[in-house]
Design brief:
By secondary structure, the protein is mostly helical. It is 60% helix and 7% strand.
């Protein structure tokens, strides 16, 4: 696992850790079942506070990308299907909300495109 934290990046360090681990897990660079370093171990390697790495791990666990197995460690989870279900649920909720607001389909799609553009802009 290779992570690079860029201090001059606008994203906070915990978000950089979260995004890079998530990206590597989804790309298969970190296979399902891969054991991640301990919070303290990764923090030392990256020169970050343990709380920063712990925050990233909590976010990844909430996203279903990793799972903690108590004293056995933290592992990459089989997250693809969980992530897809969560994405579908969020999209359905957005669609229902847009309709209740009286927004037409073109306006709703434009809002989604703008939000995605903002989220994925480096």
């Amino acid at each position: 696992m290779t992570l690079k934290i860029r201090i001059d990046d606008g994203a906070p360090p915990y978000e950089q850790v979260r995004a890079q681990i998530s990206e590597q897990a989804r790309a298969g660079v970190l296979p399902v079942g891969y054991r991640l370093p301990t919070v303290r171990g990764l923090a030392e390697t990256l020169g970050l506070a343990a709380n920063t790495v712990a925050k990233a791990y909590r976010a990844l666990e909430g996203d279903g990308v990793i799972e903690t197995r108590g004293r056995n460690g933290t592992f990459v989870a089989a997250a693809g299907s969980a992530a897809e279900r969560e994405l579908a649920s969020a999209a359905q909720a957005y669609g229902q909300r847009a309709r209740r607001l009286g927004v037409d389909e073109a306006e709703a799609l434009a809002a989604v495109r703008d939000a995605l553009r903002a989220a994925y802009t480096d």
